[in-house]
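User: Fold this; tokens only.

Assistant: Input:
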Amino acid sequence: MNLYVSNLGFNVQDDDLREFFTPYGEVASARIITDKATGQSRGFGFVEMKDEAAAKKAMAELNDATVEGRNIKVVEARPREERPSRGNSGGGSRNNRW
């Protein structure tokens, strides 16, 4: 089961995230999402747990828990939505010829 964890402090690393969830069961992966340009945490991440019951217990107990002075949010991750491509589909002021 995949979990989405938000409102994380910017100092939280992948290993820290894994440690938060390990007491509840086996963590298959834990990843903090970082900004591509700066490499700094974006304040959220994803945890994949092998056992659904353990994941649900972790979600119930860690949601709204305080980590580094911040109340984190833990919910079931939703599938990533398809985004439209960013081709030149018009709009914008760059194409105007004045």
